[in-house]
Amino acid sequence: MYKQNGKPKPSMAETITCFKASSDFVQYEHNAKEVKFWVSYIRTVADPQTLHESILSPLLKEKWSTLHQLKEIVPIEEIIVTIDTDIVSEKLLEGYIIISFSEYGSPCALLRATLNKARDISLPEVEFSVVGPKEAFVEAIEFNINLIRKRIQVPQLRIKEMQIGDLSKTKVAVLYIDSIADEENVNTITQRLRDITYDQIGDSGYVAQFISDNHNSPFPQVLDSERPDRIAAVLAEGKIAVVVDGSPQVLIGPTTLVEFFSSFEDYYLNWVLASFFRLIRVFAVAFSILVTPVYVATLTFHYELIPKDLLNTLVTSRREIPLPPILEALFLELTIELLREAGARLPTKVGQTIGIVGGIVIGTASVEAGLTSNVLLIIVALSALASFTTPVYKMGNTIRLLRFPFLIFAQMYGLLGIVLCFCFLTTHLLRLTSLGRPFLVPVYPPRSRDLKDAIIRFPFSTLSKRPMALRTKQPDKFSTKKARQRHDIDE
Predict the structure, then answer these.
(1) Which superkingdom (predicted)?
(2) How far apart are CA 325 and CA 408, in angstroms?
(3) What's the start-to-end Cα distance of the chain, in Å?
(4) 266, exposed or middle or buried, with CB in 10 Å at 0-12, 13-18, 19+?
């Protein structure tokens, strides 16, 4: 008797009996020409049309006597004849049909008839853009890979599939271009995926946490995207993509901090406009994190730095406020976060109403009640608005969190506390890595060549090199000399 992990492997009778306990398991006997056979399958994962048209119809019309003859009769691309009950259990759960000569027959034939149901390809919801393609990934891994292959039609595009999750058996595919991607990056991400020991993997968010270098960092170390055009572009750069079955988000690694503030729509615009928008996002993030802590620090410790005219305005607005600046700021910041969470968790139309009406009503009522000043209300509202400019949702959540440590340090040590907190943040980012690559590149370690597509995007004619940090096999994208040569039709 076969043994696995010290325990005897179940027999075919035990395997079929185990599946019979489920209501969606179907098993019945058929009479064909000169042979009787049993059909077994799980109706919720098997396609009935494939079963009746492509499998049963030839079996009932043709003469056959052995299971190996099914490969010549049935027009199915994958037919497995086996006695291994582990394979039988695995394939049965994937939607295969069992053909055998008895109720608990062994050996048996497994014929692929998987039922594939997925929602239609729709518009991107998180990374929506005015210009550019309007396709977004869905929850089916086959459809997602198809969207990527349509954009990269080269034989060097490699796809490594594996299963993770002891219970979910989630399919995961690692995509990269073999002639470009660094082998070390591919091996790193493949090994980390194989090392995942968890029973249920429901989304790519699970995988992103498992393969991250620092599990305690609030910063996402793997970029996720729902846009096939972005995935195709990063694969051409030499990066690795991870597609998870059941998730509309595809993971990208290794990544850098500056990528989280770059929208892929920037590449569809003129480089001057794209650079301008990137600078606005960087300024908005800095403003969102620092403006409220600077307000608290200035009013608590450094009010002498405020101009006299502005000081009069602040004193007037805070004349009847019983709370110190820190409690006033925390009250408004927490109120904004409550409104965000309420708007995100409620249905779309109700959430929008709650966000708009709730913000107006609560803000006006808190000022009239004397709990907050109208100046701070404007500052917190602008800070919340600035945080929405972050193109990546997960990085936006990190920015929301960072404001609170800066507020606490501002209350404790004033402007010096803000500088001290910024030093801690910088130290953390310097130590952070993504799949073993520096997270702050090209700022540190400095890579002057890669700065052409960081905070400012240079024209395409100057972006002839792939990022140095990726250590790609082909550093050159194209010849700069040929790109600058322009010939009119009459030349």
Answers:
(1) Bacteria
(2) 11
(3) 80
(4) buried
State whether residue 244 is helix, strand or coil: strand
CB atoms within 10 A of CB 106: 17
- In Å, what is the CA distance from 10 to each residue of 1, 13, 88, 169? 9, 8, 11, 20
8-state DSSP, 26: E
- Which residues lie closer than 8 Å to 45 by C-beta, 6 or more apart? 93, 94, 95, 114, 115
302-319 confidence digits (pLDDT tens): 888 888 777 777 877 777
Query: Which tens digit of pLDDT belongs to each residue from 339-364?
Result: 888 777 776 666 656 666 666 677 77
Q: Write the DSSP string, 61-120.
A: HS---SGGGHHHHS--S-EEEE--HHHHHHHHHTTEEEEESSTT-SSEEEEE-B----PP
Distance CA 364, CA 356 (A): 12
**Alpha carbon distance 70, 89 (integer Å):** 20
The first and second tokens of residue 154, run together, are 């080269």
pTM: 0.85
Give kind and range of the element (H or E) at residue 28.
strand 25-32
Bridge partners of 433, per DSSP, are 438
